[in-house]
Amino acid sequence: xxxxxxxxxxxxxxxxxxxxxxxxxxxxxxxxxxxxxxxxxxxxxxxxxxxxxxxxxxxxxxxxxxxxxxxxxxxxxxxxxxxxxxxxxxxxxxxxxxxxxxxxxxxxxxxxxxxxxxxxxxxxxxxxxxxxxxxxxxxxxxxxxxxxxxxxxxxxxxxxxxxxxxxxxxxxxxxxxxxxxxxxxxxxxxxxxxxxxxxxxxxxxxxxxxxxxxxxxxxxxxxxxxxxxxxxxxxxxxxxxxxxxxxxxxxxxxxxxxxxxxxxxxxxxxxxxxxxxxxxxxxxxxxxxxxxxxxxxxxxxxxxxxxxxxxxxxxxxxxxxxxxxxxxxxxxxxxxxxxxxxxxxxxxxxxxxxxxxxxxxxxxxxxxxxxxxxxxxxxxxxxxxxxxxxxxxxxxxxxxxxxxxxxxxxxxxxxxxxxxxxxxxxxxxxxxxxxxxxxxxxxxxxxxxxxxxxxxxxxxxxxxxxxxx
Amino acid sequence: xxxxxxxxxxxxxxxxxxxxxxxxxxxxxxxxxxxxxxxxxxxxxxxxxxxxxxxxxxxxxxxxxxxxxxxxxxxxxxxxxxxxxxxxxxxxxxxxxxxxxxxxxxxxxxxxxxxxxxxxxxxxxxxxxxxxxxxxxxxxxxxxxxxxxxxxxxxxxxxxxxxxxxxxxxxxxxxxxxxxxxxxxxxxxxxxxxxxxxxxxxxxxxx
Lengths: 469, 207
What we know:
The structure holds two protein chains of two kinds.
Chain A: H1 8-16, E1 17-20, E2 26-29, E3 32-35, H2 41-50, E4 60-63, H3 80-96, E5 99-101, H4 111-118, E6 126-129, E7 143-146, H5 149-158, E8 160-163, E9 167-174, H6 183-194, E10 202-207, H7 209-213, H8 216-224, E11 233-236, H9 240-246, H10 255-266, E12 278-283, E13 290-292, E14 300-302, H11 315-328, E15 343-346, H12 348-351, H13 354-364, E16 374-377, H14 382-390, H15 393-400, E17 403-404, E18 425-428, E19 444-447, H16 450-459
Parallel strand pairs in A: 3-4, 3-6, 4-5, 6-7, 9-10, 9-12, 10-11, 15-16, 15-18, 16-17, 18-19
Antiparallel strand pairs in A: 1-2, 2-8, 13-14
Helix pairs in contact in A: 2-5, 6-8, 13-15, 13-16
Chain B: E1 16-19, E2 21-23, H1 31-34, H2 54-59, E3 76-78, H3 91-99, E4 103-106, H4 111-119, E5 124-126, H5 129-141, E6 147-150, E7 155-158, E8 161-164, H6 169-177, H7 183-187, H8 192-198
Parallel strand pairs in B: 2-3, 3-4, 4-5
Antiparallel strand pairs in B: 1-6, 6-7, 7-8
């Protein structure tokens, strides 16, 4: 009997399909449910109201990341509202017997950083979390969805959710990245090409020589921003790098069982010759260090390019470009290089891992943060902080004038005290340049790679990192 | 599973939504704009309504459609492309619902936003670009007119005429059957949930 070639998405989907719902959607089992303090309290309240237990507490894992301060994390937290949210999460985890990775465990961090770090994220899993950047976990060949709070409730109650099947688009990044070009630049280039809503209805499968050559952490950066391209999930097929990353992690199998598990993981990869609903190719060799100039991640360009003019874009983009130029107060046609910055932020679930900090530190070593620029380095987790400190990265950053902080989401979305003020311009390694995203209703965000952020911090303006390295 | 309250819920079928509209133009309106993150520092959704589009409204100095008195009392928000992109925060549809909107008509919706709306029984229906333009112009001209979204017939009716509406079939069924509040339906799978879990190599019998 010949077996039909299947994509990873289809294999994972089929293995987790509980049944077809009367609506025609699939009731999909979610193997790993990650929760945090912002999108779960209302879900627990609804669960209590319904009188339901948590169905699989042993498959539910919690941490605190969005609201946690990155200076003084001692309890009670200085902000009463933040303290109330953290206490509520602690209470819910206690009441329902859910593992909580709080600061006292030494394993706290951004939920999408600690999942992989702990080995909770594995190939072939379904994962969901009340956070759109859950797509990060796809770097391991997991199918990972961001969900809302009502679905968090459904997952707590049933470990499953109703969802219509997605189509699969394979995105092949060919060639080889130039020096100074990083995973962040690749995903920005993909979003620029396919649009911020180009991925609606699709799972993105990232592939090709550039993706194959990436480390697991780089793949996480790419998968992380799938949602910025409209795709609810994105993944990379597991390979030997995936296996090596997972070896010896807290939640991965012991040595005796590891080889067998690893074989199973590799078998989840898309079969050669499987069908895709769409295939897109992108020349990785042509990608430059990229920067956003506008108010969504699709508004990005290479560092040598000029900010668009409303007349130079297609009709259906004109209004958006005009709105963005007005908000950013940038001159159409001007070079993005040379744009002055006020704040530099290195961190987030997109670029807050050890390899990101290493790249940024290489640049930080070359100079001092420009007078008048506020520069923050926020490790993605306690484990990342520890590793960075063991390597002396914190000293490099501090010597260059960067603040070295405690782990959390921090200025990516500014739910803690780390915020832009007024019209400040921030060079940021995070994932969203939406209006007001970084805590000031009129603040401005330029997304770029961690190395580019470090370079901008030193120059006081947007510069081409390739000229420094 | 018969002793929990989830099974006692009365099904609320959403077949039609009738009301006046509010036109909010612009593509790619993200959920940070709908509800800025600082207002999510609470453990309930109760106060979300008062903060809907807060920063955008302040910046517009009273000129924002949500502050336009011609649209007061509107229950249908009419938007353009990729509405609700970005963060998965259900706080966004919660804010709009608590502000007074019961349905959305647009060119396209971001997937997680639309899913969150479904969970709240708020239909998101899409129109073709020419039809959407017609509806927007018409509602701007006469904001007092009634708009009717008929999910059974898949139509949006207003002074702009009877327009063909697109709703994903699964969502339409959930609305018509009243199964949009998904917990009860998902619970009906019973031990099929555990059986599926047990067959997975990473859960197995630990479930």
